[in-house]
Amino acid sequence: MTLKTQIKTIAQACSKEIIGIRRHLHQHPELSFEEYNTAHFISDTLTAYNIPHQTGIVKTGIVALIKGNNPNKKTVALRADIDALPIFEKNEVSYKSTIDGLMHACGHDVHTASLLGAAKILNSLKTEFEGTVKLIFQPGEEKLPGGASLMIKAGVLHNPRPVNIIGQHVFPSMEVGKVGFRNGMYMASTDELYIRVKGKGGHAAMPEQYINPLLIASEILIALQANFMNEVTKKIPNIPTVLAFGKINGMGATNVIPDEVLIEGTFRTMDETWRTEAHNRMKKIAQEIAKKMGGDCEFTILKGYPFLVNDTELTNQARQLAQDYLGKENVEELPLRMTAEDFAFYSQEIPACFYRLGTANANKGITAGVHTSNFDIDEAALEIGMGLMAWITINNLMCIK
User: pLDDT tens digit string along 98-109?
Assistant: First the structure.
């Protein structure tokens, strides 16, 4: 029996178990950095699989090691995120969230279950490969500063240091049975923008006595959204950039001019030098407009995740292995995305491959996107996800047989 056949056989044999794990996790979601029961469950599962591991990293993170022959030869890392979102689930399924207002609406239950499945496969075949597999179960992907950044600071990329890292993410826009890859830049950096525009409040009927922060805020928004972004498009067309504002709060009334206006937005791009320059330019534009109109402006930027870059050599290898495992017709090229992922922190440290796992099934009505109250998956994706990850990992380590 070939190694690929062994992997597929084991994945099929334990698929019901891994589906059960996914359903348990789905029923018991926990928010970022509060995943204590989730971590306990993962630890118990790894113990049942006889896989040594360390708990309590960044409170709820876990790192496990599967050592093959000659374990010091090479180490590769696999990562899954474990946190959920503050969303009320509307799905009427047997494994619906048991906690009102919390839901695994981004597929982290799938990522965790798939990684546990891959761990079970790899552990049962550890005499077939040389090197070590490092499993990273990471908290807090959904919340700044991102669990990945904290796990890295805690040393998860050392002792032993992996030569590369692989991550897998659900993709509800892709039918189950398919996977997607992209070389190079894949996902954007993300920053949160908080602008406090200060004026002077007063009675709306007495314009000589107030400085309207709403008008100042309007000028700032126009200057940033139109003029600044038009300039960006002309001068740096090769660097994808998004600037968007989703909230403005004046708290005035028909005849009340408020003292200040609050604006919130997001800035995303794929170049760190330009990212820094853009931060400075946006602040300067807003502050100059506010001053010119007699007001003031506090422009706060919460720097989030960096852009995610897929290592070309590692991604090409993973793509070819996926074609071999699933068939060339089931492996697709992914478009650039301006969404963000804290896996990007790993990709800035070591060669990385972040690919997508198809989870949709239009015939079953499973098409809802992530971060929605109706998100769900075709659970056939779990057998594919764990098997493919094990296949890519073993070949990454270079098989003995």
Answer: 999 999 999 999
